Amino acid sequence: MIDAHNIIKEYQTGTELLRVLDDVTITVMENEFTAILGPSGSGKSTLMNVLGCLDRPTSGTYFLDGVDVLQANEKQLAHMRNQKIGFVFQKFNLLPRLTAIQNVMLPLLYRGIDEADAFERAKEKLVLLGLENRLKHRPNELSGGQQQRVAIARAIVGDPPLLLADEPTGNLDSKSSLDAIKIFQDLHHQGNTILVITHDRDVAEKLQKVVFIRDGRLYEN
Ligand code: ADP
Ligand code: ADP
């Protein structure tokens, strides 16, 4: 699913060249559940942005689901993000004025799927995540754990081949964190390919495969 080799990302800061990703090679197979674990400042967000087709590396190669990402233009990159990746963020990124189900419907509406169909598909995912009694609630009427479940429903509503989660438990209490991890595990068992980026050891140790990042370099153990 993910086939990234020798990824280097450098930033020019004043006169200094800062190497944030240093020869990163990572592969994620279909139906794998992988965590990338590393401390703050180790390059996790930068790697997430590259793997999520949000940012380009300075050099390296990256194939996502067989497509050469680094040869794609901006329009094609946006298409990759929409079609191939479901994103889950630390801050949920739900639209505050929309209800839970409207938030989940949005990616489908953007794709031109009609409203009735989008409603049914969004409802199916919210029910799957135990939110059948929260469809019409707005984000500020939901707990953090519930908001993250809405965000996960939104990420999977288009059945993307890859689920990419950046610190998904960063704003959750420990019980909600465990619930969120359980949801990812269930999704994994249903055939989803998942990559979670986290600084939380308790989260990482529950997952199938853990890769470590430190100072922009990856380590298998
Ligand atoms: P993490 O997500 O693990 O906290 P980041 O990927 O956000 O790490 O950052 C890794 C390093 O790269 C940090 O030292 C950060 O300051 C630096 N960095 C990230 N983005 C930029 C940027 N756009 N310009 C300059 N330095 C950056
Ligand atoms: P996170 O909490 O996800 O690690 P950060 O606070 O490290 O996020 O970074 C937020 C955004 O700012 C990212 O897009 C990152 O690329 C950018 N950034 C981080 N460090 C720097 C920096 N030193 N200079 C410029 N941009 C930076």
TrEMBL record:
Domain ABC transporter: start-end pairs: 2-221
Entry-linked Gene3D superfamilies: P-loop containing nucleotide triphosphate hydrolases
InterPro entries recorded: AAA+_ATPase, ABC_transporter-like_ATP-bd, ABC_transporter-like_CS, ABC_transpr_LolD-like, MacB-like_ATP-bd, P-loop_NTPase
GO cellular component: membrane protein complex; plasma membrane
Tagged with keyword ATP-binding: yes
GO molecular function: ATP binding; ATP hydrolysis activity; transmembrane transporter activity
Name of protein: ATP-binding cassette domain-containing protein
Superkingdom assignment: Bacteria
Classification via CDD domains: ABC_MJ0796_LolCDE_FtsE
Keywords: ATP-binding, Nucleotide-binding, Transport
Organism: Heliobacterium mobile (Heliobacillus mobilis)
